[in-house]
Automatic annotation (TrEMBL), chains A, B:
Record lineage: Bacteria, Pseudomonadati, Bacteroidota, Chitinophagia, Chitinophagales
Pfam families for this protein: M20_dimer, Peptidase_M20
Annotated protein name in UniProt: Acetylornithine deacetylase/Succinyl-diaminopimelate desuccinylase
GO MF term (any one): metal ion binding
Record PANTHER family: BETA-ALA-HIS DIPEPTIDASE, SUCCINYL-DIAMINOPIMELATE DESUCCINYLASE
Domain Peptidase M20 dimerisation: 200-352
Transmembrane segments: none
A Gene Ontology BP annotation from the UniProt entry: proteolysis
């Protein structure tokens, strides 16, 4: 629509500057020292929603970080779209690997560098600007609701309670989320599934105090060695996960769907070069895209124990720790899998040590039906602005809240992501391409238009 | 000698208070922020040596931390004893596990709690007070030299150059070191051997940046998992070390000597209870005392990688690190074994990752001949003040400088240690029993007396 295009063209610099302002707020949900930044960020989101044309916006406190809710209601005959996003970001460390400050956004070679540039500030902000475009051109075709939370990066701890307590408020026909990636601007794609997650912290205790490794080494189990043996034992020589029952609930993907997924462009040499590795690693019998899309995985996200400072210290530590997470695929339910993994960790703990395993957040896997109106509206919107039908792909990440939305709100989710796998999510130098940001703002109004038309 | 006893009784409170003052200086050699504390500590040691009766004391700068050298020369007909000690201490972390400040010494239940209380400030300070006792009672029977260095805890990096450059200055008939433990005041013992050491830092690099564990997990090798597998592979199911060639140079200890060592009192239930473990761990076929005394070991002293902060972060890290050290037994030379271990680490690195292994400090094992004058003088001194012949035992720790002294100064070392294994060396709440401190001061002059008599 020409009016949209004109409006966006006219305001594009402001759109970008507003995003940069948002990126300057260090809204790290995992760190308690950022509590006030979280509140400032929620306030900023509220202001931007009001300026963009929301009828009302409220900040709802939770036992953790606040939820921002805003809406514009036209009339009951129109369908209602609930846009979900999150204003919290991952911790920025290791800081020394950033080329510029994680909360001092810079634009270089057409890319915005900042923590949260893509995940998810840059992506949910496209929705606010798309919304502004439609309200300012008097062309909003749907009732629209915004649910922008502050705890996605720490497992949406309080969102379930919030959603259950506000079912009526959040009632919608479809949920729209931009928190995933596409293959590229040249090869647009839509994630039709996200993996589930279970995240466990393991504490291995050997002796009751740190010991001198000369005086006691060789006679007392070293918790680091034991933890290493436990971790090592969880993948076999084919990189299958060895935990009993781990694959029991996995829905095998039919050969036809695997063949379809194999059509996504993939260049192994380029993939390896981008990552700087000589060889890829993964479960035998599956391709890279399958390993990250349709197969469950187990990764150690962090490990620590003993002396980790400068120089040498000859200590045999009392404790060693690891953070371990699994990505889950359809039919593997998070709660059950958390128990499967924890039970296994406890069962393989040798008598020399005490093992404690504590679950962090988790979430169930989710699939969008490709034959649904919401998927078709998204596909058609991308076709309109990209000139190509998007490829349906399986994303490797997790958006635990989607399974929850379905069960509480009885509502399907569609993932309209404009990020790229190379955006360094959760890593130093996170970025978001300015072109993708604008392309998202351009595409989103069409989703609303097509969806409204389909639901007429 | 009654004069010694009287003098020590009269000054015992001052002796203790002087030690507490020394313990207040945070002379952590491993941390560059303590550079000035190291200088203050060297100055304090110099002052105490002068006050105790040294003819001259000098502080020698090195490329690292300074060496304190002091002496009192009587005449060339008397034998010369070189007392070696170190004024540097291990880092105090983890700080949160200390019951009182590591550099705010407190005395509780007859024990001095502070970093360095036993290792080695409390022990070398006994020599200064024993020296004072002899000079003040005009009964010093030997020429005495003090070499108190500041880099023992970081591998005595610059001491070899110093010793080589000052061979004449350091010339002695015997080297006396109190930096080891005895079984207990009731079961006095003398370490007849210390193990050697090799200490290696390993860096495993997977992808060139931290990755999102959902987007890339399962398709790219996780350096933590790989490092865990490498560590896990280095002990077999009998806890033998699997590194090819690792045991090649080990001098097997004859059955007769093993039988002799087995006489040292050892209560397994008490040992386990003290450490808070349900089961001991170690190389099959050897007892606890053998595992820590006559067998080489491999311990992971530290490990780190990925996200180690509060909460959850779904990262697949670029790098993982470990600090690994081996204790070496007679005939295993440190330089060779360092190469053996590093070569092995590189050889087992899979193609998915890059492995870098860097040696920290090391040292060769050392044995004191039990039929030597120096051992006999030490044994007799302990018999005099404890009323019991000390048991010769093999210590698990390492004093790398002893092998160096032997090769450069052609001089044997005797270990006259008064610590206890339970002194929490290198750990939180390091302590030294006040009784052991005084017992050391009481015993040391007899060593000098007996040694002078034997050398007449």
């Amino acid at each position: 629509m020409q009016a949209w295009k004109d409006y966006q063209q006219q305001h594009k610099d402001r759109f970008l500057n507003e995003l940069l302002d948002l990126l300057r707020i260090p809204s790290v949900s995992a760190r308690s020292e950022h509590k006030n930044d979280m509140i400032s960020c929620a306030e900023a989101v509220k202001q931007r929603l009001l300026e963009a044309g929301a009828d009302k916006v409220d900040i709802y406190p939770t036992p953790g970080h606040p939820v921002v809710y805003g809406e514009k209601f036209l009339d009951a005959s129109k369908p209602t779209v609930l846009v979900y996003g999150h204003y919290d970001v991952q911790p920025a460390d290791p800081l020394e690997l950033w080329n510029s400050g994680p909360f001092e956004p810079v634009i270089k070679d057409g890319k915005i560098y900042a923590r949260g540039a893509c995940d998810d500030k840059g992506q949910f902000y496209m929705h606010i600007k798309a919304f502004e475009t439609m309200t300012q051109t008097n062309s909003l075709p749907v009732n629209i609701k915004f649910l922008i939370e502050g705890e996605e990066e720490i497992g949406s701890r309080n969102l379930q309670d919030f959603v259950e307590a506000h079912k009526e408020l959040l009632k919608a026909d479809v949920i729209l989320i931009s928190d995933t990636a596409m293959l590229s601007l040249e090869n647009p794609s839509i994630d039709v599934g996200v993996r589930g997650l279970t995240y466990i912290e393991v504490e291995v205790t050997g002796p009751n105090r740190d010991l001198h490794s000369g005086v006691y080494g060789g006679a007392v189990a070293n918790p680091i060695t034991i933890l290493a043996k436990m971790i090592a034992s969880m993948h076999d020589e084919n990189n299958h996960i060895t935990i009993p029952g781990f694959y029991d609930d996995v829905l095998e993907v039919p050969a036809a769907e695997r063949a379809e997924l194999a059509k996504a462009p993939y260049d192994e040499a380029e993939y390896k070069q981008d990552l700087g590795v000589n060889a890829l690693w993964g479960e035998k019998g599956f391709t890279t895209n399958e390993r990250t899309g349709i197969r469950p995985t187990l990764e150690v996200n962090g490990i620590w124990g003993g002396y980790t400072g400068e120089g040498a210290k000859t200590v045999l530590p009392s404790k060693a720790f690891a953070k371990i997470s699994c990505r889950l695929v359809p039919n593997q339910m998070s709660e059950k899998m958390t128990k499967v993994v924890i039970d296994h960790l406890l069962s393989i703990a040798p008598e020399y040590v005490q093992v404690k395993a504590t679950p962090h957040h988790g979430g169930d896997p989710y699939m969008t039906p490709v034959n649904s109106d919401e998927y078709r509206a998204a596909s058609k919107a991308i076709e309109t602005t990209f000139g190509k039908t998007p490829i349906p792909v399986r994303g490797g990440g997790s958006i635990p809240i989607t399974a929850l939305f379905e069960s509480i709100l009885q509502c399907k989710t569609v993932f309209l992501g404009f990020g790229l796998d190379s955006d360094n999510l959760h890593s130093p130098n996170e970025k978001y391409d300015v072109a993708n940001f604008y392309k998202g703002i351009e595409t989103i109004p069409y989703f609303h238009q097509y969806y409204a038309e389909m639901k007429k």
